[in-house]
Amino acid sequence: VAKLQNPQGAAPAPDPATQALVQKYAWPGRPALIGTSVKRLDGPDKVTGRAKYTYDIARPGLIYGKVARSPHPHARIVSIDLSEAQRAPGVRAALAWKNPGDEVMFQGDSVAAVAADTEERARDAVRLIRVEYQPLPFFSSVEQAMEPGAPTVFQNGNTRAGMVQEAGDLDAGFKQAASIVEQTYSTHVITHVCLETHCVVCEWEGDRLTVWISTQAVHGSVDQFARGLQIPASNIRVICQYMGGGFGAKTQAGAEGLIGARLAQAARAPVKLTLDRKEEHLDTGNRPSAFAEIRAGVASDGMLTAFEARSWGTGGAGAGSNFPLPYIYQFPNRRRAHTDVYINAGQQRPMRAPGHPQGCFITEILMDELADQIRMDPVEFRIKNCPPDAPNAKWRDYLAEGAKLFGWERRHPTGDPAPGPIKTGFGCAVHQWGGGGRGAQARCEIAADGSVVMKCGTQDLGTGTRTIVAMVAAETLGLPVAAITPQIGDTMYPQAGASGGSTTAASVSPAIRLAAGKALDQLLERVAPTLGVDAASLVAANGRIQVRDNPSRGLTWREACKLLGTSPITADAQWTQGLSSTGTSGAQFTEVSVDIETGIVKVTRILAIQDCGLIVDRLTAESQVHGGIIGSLNFALFEDRILDRVTGQMVNPNMEMYLLAGMSDIPQIDIVLKNMPERGVIGIGEPPTVSTSAAIASAVRNATGATIRSLPLMPHKVLDAIQAQRAGGTN
Amino acid sequence: LKAFAYVNPTSERDAVIALRVENGTAAPLAGGMDLITRMKNYIQSPDRVVNVKNALDRTISTTPDGGMRLGAAVKIVDLAEHPQVGRLYPAIVAAAGEVGTPQIRNAGTVGGNLNQRPRCWYYTNEEFVCYKKGGNRCFSPAGENQYHAIFGNDGPSHIVHPSSLAVPFVAYGARFRVVGPNGERTVNAAEYFTMPTLQNVQKENVLADDELLTHVILPAPGNVRHGHYEVRYKQSHDWPLAFATVVLALNGNTIRSARVVLGAVAPVPWRSEDAERALAGRSLDADTAAAAGDAAVAAAKPLSRNGYKVQITRTAVKRAVLRAAGLQTV
Description:
The structure holds two protein chains of two kinds. By secondary structure, chain A is of the alpha+beta class. Chain A is built from 19 helices and 28 strands. In chain B, strand 2, helix 2 and strand 3 form a beta-alpha-beta unit. The model of chain B has no long low-confidence stretch (mean pLDDT 97). The chains are: A alpha+beta, B alpha+beta.
């Protein structure tokens, strides 16, 4: 997680030639394409089915794999008998993935696998694998794991205490406080629920392996397959042309990837292995839960004075659960201690803005409670306690602007005074994210027929990467977007990093810009003699190569490229400091209506104010914000991985009882994107998904006058909180 | 999904014959909304699947006594959009329009909606070998029972009946025509659905394995007021948390008699005689609606985690009565 959050690190200073190139190809002051709204180039292919996702890959002789998984949350494997499965109709290979004596640590843990000539036969056959288990003690909740006297389920302890974070003088801080809030807050576990489940096709040719896989990292996958299969990385090719989402769950080859390769080896045939929705929920990651027992103080002038928290959470079987706390707001005196709690459930994987939605919800609801203590408007209170302004920290501006746009002055104090059961309320929350670029490489090829191919071994998760590759190249070469052929999603193309932590646009765009610029420079050199001018006086614009001060003197792009004859141009470049930067800030406002006779919450309006540096494609940037907000609304209201407390098995491993917003649950969403060309490209994947859920909970509190300190905001919690408030409880 | 034989009979009689398999099992397939999922999840693995869509009536017609007759193969969308059903039995149209999604309503049938199996997550997940799957316990009392029953909890199983149409059918006093190897019979809707007992926990109704529900016969509604109200968490595809149909016979503005049936709260469509008594003899107004809501849940016995459904059910009944009165619900 930390690796994804701050990938930038210390980049070596570029050599003088590269520095000159970066200077020459700084982002244009008056761009023709960048910052406009360009539709996804592959949109028509996707809606017509021409786009081939991993699941659509057909290979000669393809067979189908299926994984046998543990039904137990914790057990020791006594024996694995593959014989019956091996005899089943159509079965071509069967293998044990774990050995007798090994332990399975969660329901859904991979144990064995089969491959058969149809997917249906593989599904039937995998059920014939006989595994004898010795069930062992398990935890299905953090409460069970933390109970005094609980058995030791995890070898190195059921919990792991993290570092204590401290600053200032806590006692002095609480002495300055005019009011103190002492409460416990929590968020729950959700899974990534990519529309496209994990899928892999593995094909061997001798000792060389080709893998089609739905992945956020084609190049990264090579290393994982190489390590997992003990073969040289140079023998592996990984391809991912189209994806139906990753959200952090697809940054690793996973057991299923390696199992697919092993099955293909054993069966001597290409194998496709597709996880179903249940496997997806159980074994491909989740967002850890978060709990925090907090004591916080505020002075009578509205300045925060002290913050003390004991926090914990679970990332499943042996995985961490840390998250930022307090989030963004400045408590001069603070102490926070976090403990990871292990339970017998699938391990967490980074999930869109790892840790931030949890820290944001917990801190923002606390902020609302503190603001009410001193009777201060929540926006004013937040503005008072934000960190100092910076280009990547403009919350004060955004809160003020958002309040104005949203009609914050119409907000009533906590508790809608209107008669009747429908109460409405406003809420707000802020967020931050790092993002930024790192070492992506790209190649630009210009052929004598005028065609331009941009190659980069990045991948398009559905965010529009393919489109911005073409846009940046087209901008640089003075061509329309359609003139560029972007080639991505294949390790045949130059190295690029994983798409995680909002880094793709900021890594790829500079590499494309510089590669296209280098190629253009070569083209200008070749064209200059024909035009009888200096290459330095030529520019590419409007589909022409022309003299900067005399545009009528020049050649069309096609005429210019014809001069290349039999020596086409190839230019390589890589991401270099100067065209991207890191750090974004944003604020969101929500309006909800709550039916206090049923506890049902409906979100009616959302406003997002978001910066992301230089906007490349405005349309796909807005789309990122839409997607992030809808995901966060799901976190606030609907999604919940529910484990049966008695058996430790998930009761809702589907999309029927694991709730997700449909069209009717999604409100009007207004987006204000802040273009900051001077900062370069940053990336906008995570930030918009951080604060929506906190802002929704904040609005529910404003509507009902009752504080719900745990997500999701299910009817029973809303009704309970209202009842507690009426009874004169702590609300 | 286990391999199965597929037969496609074109008459009720052939369908009934096809449902009987020597040394094996058969299952009727209509819209497939429920059965196919069950088969894919290995909850039920019939040896033979009998397509009954071509064997069952797909029409909606009027009966001589002024009532209506619905074929079991009528699609839910056609019921939801039927003008005459809408005039005579508005609660049925309201319930049909809230079933599933447009896709489900376009494929799902009336018979399938009535005979679908429970959506209890212990039943629909293979790991849990519960009473309904031949096991020896119900997982819900000690487990995750937030969507389970708040009425009828004295028996061994705590599912809520999944049918949206069953509730208004019971409220309107419908009868179901059933055919089997020995001919046909008619069963009152209220008696068709069965409470779980240890001896009869694997079924939710009186239909034998080789019988088919062929028609829903609705009596003439008479001069009544109708109200239907469903509470669901998501506004898009979701199961109701509770819903209610009320049918009121009036004398002026005084309620002469009432029928109140609750859905998603018990193993069967749950008739609330307490609410009916609270309505009878009272004037049809907001106070009476609130009193009916309170009375409807007075005898509720929620499980450990579904107490909130009591309040939601109270609200559903109150608002159904308000709708019948033509008053604002919120």
